[in-house]
């Protein structure tokens, strides 16, 4: 990723054989360091793939409006690139949270020609904002977190971006929604070898070395206020690291949905376990690992492409 590169940058192109009926483009949001280099390591996903980097990478200025201000700006970047219609949003860690923030803004603005077909979230655990009296405790815990990419003294710009992002994130609350995914209706997923019917609370799980299987999870209490046109959270697939790491990203490591279960309106409908810890999801020195991660990302996209509201 180069700071003077187009933003978003197109990483991959839909193959000619799919151009007549292309799948939704995948738009990946940068990680906490503000860069998109990791996404260049992915193999062919057979669709248009774009990546958004932080245009204030290494900048001393702050985002007006915090994360929601970033999300609003990123929507404008997507539109300026000529991207319209149905899209899949996603990203690693902070990129997952940004995807949710962007989806919420779009849910409130029907004038924008962007519809979220799904979210592809890579190891972004449930997020809670930090109160003022907890900031010191949070900083102490974060100092003990291994951040090999962001604390590299040879890349002070990335470190500065990461620290700025963290300060915004700890004060940010996850957006609220009027209803869970598809308003809690039954969903149908058709895969090459098998199809699944998912009731409210059901999630497809693909363990390491295993096959897809449905599991039942606890659900978040439904909203008590009915609205005429409820804003519903888009369906998501989560790629979940199975190896532990130290620090704030492992509070919910042992939970299948990384803490989202019962704490947030239901939206994660599939979980894919990956053999990595949070900071080693992407590894430019391990081609076999990147090949496997590419297959898992393709699995997640296949789920989103083939997920429909069930009709009798």
UniProtKB/TrEMBL annotation:
InterPro entries: AB_hydrolase_fold (IPR029058), Thioesterase (IPR001031). Pfam families: Thioesterase. Residues 25-132 form the Thioesterase domain. It comes from the Eukaryota. This is Thioesterase domain-containing protein. It comes from Pochonia chlamydosporia 170.
């Amino acid at each position: 990723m180069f700071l003077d590169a187009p933003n978003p940058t197109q990483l991959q192109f839909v193959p000619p054989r799919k151009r007549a009926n292309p799948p939704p483009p995948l738009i990946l949001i940068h990680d906490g360091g503000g860069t998109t280099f990791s996404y260049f390591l992915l193999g062919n996903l057979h669709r248009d793939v774009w990546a958004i980097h932080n245009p204030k990478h290494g900048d001393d200025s702050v985002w007006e409006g915090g994360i929601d201000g970033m999300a609003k700006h990123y929507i404008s970047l997507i539109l300026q690139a000529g991207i319209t219609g149905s899209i899949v949003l996603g990203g690693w860690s902070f990129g997952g949270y940004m995807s949710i923030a962007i989806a919420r803004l779009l849910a409130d603005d029907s004038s924008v020609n962007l519809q979220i077909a799904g979210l592809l979230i890579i190891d972004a655990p449930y997020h809670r904002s930090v109160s003022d009296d907890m900031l010191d405790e949070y900083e102490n815990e974060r100092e003990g977190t291994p951040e090999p990419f962001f604390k590299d003294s040879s890349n002070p710009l990335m470190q500065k971006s990461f620290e700025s992002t963290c300060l915004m994130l700890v004060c940010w609350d996850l957006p609220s929604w009027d209803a869970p995914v598809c308003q809690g209706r039954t969903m149908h997923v058709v895969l090459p070898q098998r199809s699944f019917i998912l009731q409210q609370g059901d999630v497809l799980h693909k363990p390491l070395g295993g096959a897809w299987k449905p599991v039942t999870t606890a659900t978040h209490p439904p909203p008590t206020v009915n609205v005429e046109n409820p804003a519903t959270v888009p369906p998501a697939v989560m790629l979940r690291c199975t190896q532990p790491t130290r620090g704030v990203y492992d509070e919910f490591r042992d939970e299948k949905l990384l803490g989202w279960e019962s704490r947030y309106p239901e939206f994660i409908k599939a979980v894919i376990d990956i053999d990595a810890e949070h900071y080693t999801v992407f590894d430019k020195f391990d081609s076999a690992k990147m090949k496997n991660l590419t297959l898992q990302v393709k699995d997640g996209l296949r789920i989103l492409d083939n997920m429909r509201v069930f009709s009798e």
